[in-house]
Amino acid sequence: MRCSVIGAGAWGTALADVLARNGHHVALWAYEPDVVEAVNTRHENARFLPGAHLHESLRATSSFADALGDATLVCMATPSQHLRAITGQAAPHLHAAATVCVASKGIERDTLALMSDVVESEAHGRPVVALSGPSFAAEVAARQPTAIVAASDDLVAAELAQEAFSNGNLRIYTHDDVIGVELGGSLKNVMAVATGICEGAGFGFNSRAALITRGLAEMTRLGAAIGAKPATFAGLAGIGDLVLTCTGSLSRNRAVGIAVGKGASLEAALAGKETVAEGVGTTRSALALAEREGVEMPIVSMVYRVLFDGLAAHRGVTELMGRELRAEQDA
């Protein structure tokens, strides 16, 4: 089929390459002219996905009309804070029968909307599928075995995405819990910042395991409050993505947390980075969503205070340990 990927960061580029290698006709929309030139002439995206040789049939463009044209599968892979604006610009060029996948992960800051809700509001009347799960873009581009989830209220749309992206290296499972899949993919970035802070402050493996496990409890608690199925957080888009992002050396969010945990300011930790650490922005919106729903999320609160209120990393972790004792399982 004819496909379009909007957003040529590492993840968007890797997904576009998967589709091209699967035999689809793929256009990759990029904001950066140098990325367009590099993909089309050298079959690489050295700016965002260095070291990956892209399929020769993949073409890039900076024109929405050119990228979208008659594409019946469209994948949105922009940073979350730009998703609404870019989807709005792309919408007039979308094919009437297009299925739209959302590979962006986050919670919109002002509206506290999930990314699929943002796309649905801008691309009216088209089925939307959320893609999420444990997947570093560089490893997908290197064709390492990977499994992720395609979640939608529309099973036909989910199965369309499943068939389009699946191959011998990338396995896609369908899911019907869009809220749980999206929230898991968003909140794991905040927890990765938390585990990075813990590591940077000098704490060890015991501390990291505690943060990951209690972080999962927080994610599940918030998910249940807004309509997700708790069991979803035991799957690929929950614990799978959480463990990868909290422990993997390729995790941008973990790296930012480590720098802050060692004493760097947030500005210094983010300086010079081409790629976006989504967990920083998601920390603000996750805390606001938790407060709106009346859900206690002490790890998210700690990350917020360390990143934005100047709380010392070591003190933030020790304060978590000093909280009132309680049962592990919620009543």
Please summarize what this structure is.
By secondary structure, the chain is α/β, with parallel strands linked by helices. The protein contains 15 helices and eight strands.
Features:
15 helices; eight-stranded mixed β-sheet; Rossmann fold; alpha/beta; about 325 residues; about 50% helix; N-(1-d-carboxylethyl)-l-norvaline Dehydrogenase, domain 2; 2 domains
Describe it.
It is a single chain. This protein is an alpha/beta fold and 331 residues long. It folds into two domains: 2-176, Rossmann fold; 179-321, Orthogonal Bundle (N-(1-d-carboxylethyl)-l-norvaline Dehydrogenase, domain 2), CATH 1.10.1040. The chain is built from 15 helices and eight strands. The chain has an eight-stranded mixed beta sheet, sandwiched between helices. Helix 8 (178-200) runs parallel beside helix 10 and helix 9 (205-225) packs antiparallel against helix 10. The radius of gyration is 19 Å and the shape is globular.
Kindly state the mean pLDDT as a whole number?
96
User: How many domain regions?
Assistant: 2
Main β-sheet, spatial strand arrangement: 3-2-1-4-5-6-7-8
And the CATH topology of the largest domain?
Rossmann fold
Q: Hey, roughly how much beta strand do the residues contain?
A: 5-15%
- Gyration radius (Cα, Å) is 19 Å
> What is the oligomer described by this structure?
single chain
For CATH, the homologous superfamily of the largest domain is named as: NAD(P)-binding Rossmann-like Domain
Helical proportion?
A: 40-55%
How many beta strands in the DSSP annotation? 8
Spell out the helices and strands N to C: EHEHEHEHEHEHEHEHHHHHHHH
CA-CA gap between termini: 49 Å
Major sheet details? 8 strands, mixed
Number of helices: 15
Overall, the morphology is globular
Class derived from helix and strand content:
alpha/beta
Return residue spans where pLDDT drops below 50 for at least 5 consecutive residues: none
Corresponding CATH architecture of the largest domain: 3-Layer(aba) Sandwich
Tell me the name of the CATH class of the largest domain: Alpha Beta
